[in-house]
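Researcher: Please generate the 3D structure of the following complex. Treat every line as part of one assembly.
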Amino acid sequence: MDGMSTDAAATTLRAPRPGAELLAEPMRSRWSPAVFATDAAIDDATLESLLVAASWAPSTGNTQPWAFVATRRGTASYDVVVDSLSAGNSGWVPTAPVLIVAATLVGEHDGRSGKGDYTFYDLGQSVAHLTLQAQAVGLHTHQFAGFDHEAAARGLGIPASFRVLAGIAVGYVGEDAHVEAAAPEDADRHRKERVRRALAETAYDGTWGTPLA
Amino acid sequence: MDGMSTDAAATTLRAPRPGAELLAEPMRSRWSPAVFATDAAIDDATLESLLVAASWAPSTGNTQPWAFVATRRGTASYDVVVDSLSAGNSGWVPTAPVLIVAATLVGEHDGRSGKGDYTFYDLGQSVAHLTLQAQAVGLHTHQFAGFDHEAAARGLGIPASFRVLAGIAVGYVGEDAHVEAAAPEDADRHRKERVRRALAETAYDGTWGTPLA
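Model: Done. Output below.
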């Protein structure tokens, strides 16, 4: 594009998107890459900080229904997750050095019980805190639902009282060389323009249908 | 307590809690006050930025199932929310200048349909982005579920295809004078020590039950 370098164009397609420039970090710059830097690892302290962030999320009545199993490249547990991936996710997900499986309490466990729709709502909040902590320390994340949840639960020992909802790929964002080495569909996904519905369709002022002042 | 001022003790009970000092902002300092500064308003641009942050959250297949109705003190809509509050929430919630009702798609609407448990998970993520944006610009939030969801939906015009899950009280944290003027149970709630389950009970390394290295 005339007058715009490839890098600037790529940034525009990712973050911050128009309208999001006014957001504070780490929300401003967060986006979900489809190509991670395959040669970069995550140190133990950094990984732990993500899970600490998840644990300090608010939850309904402070029930904290969430549970996480973190797996690192080169371990049998990581391979359990990779082996469970849907076809569409099996190319890009393994570019991340850490895959975290996120589950939430839906039955009875240690005297606690999952609370209806809120157990999913609370897990979502906790994962958001995890992903934003990751973003704040220079990592990126990309969540995925397309994997065999029961196979992953079985392979990682997650009890039946917890329901697996999401995987979280965590790593450093892929550089140009990684993107060029990726499968074309993953490179396309990585470069794809991020879009959202107009604010006027999701947020109202006082009454449903009234745009914000 | 000897050697510790009242302010330092209060901070210790709120944020960051031990173990959370290593988190990045705004996760590090986030907590949910039960007393807001009753005399402080929120300007339109700041309120809009919270809803923009919510809209840029990730969601399952980018479905963005969330919807928000923001109400401001002194409007009929705000009173709809206040009138719907449970007894336990009717004292502290109205100390906040803005109350946002969060709902998510569970039926059919405009050719879109709510997707099982993920509609709640996605709403939770969106609300987390909203609350962390608030924290980043000096506001605080406190979510509540205890209100008549159907009465609030009816009063605000939220269609039946959306399910109301949460209210979000947004404002500036109450100062000492506000806390002293609050009902004793709300002041206690405001000052209460924040606690979480041990990380070893919620986050595992490779296999369920194995603490992080």
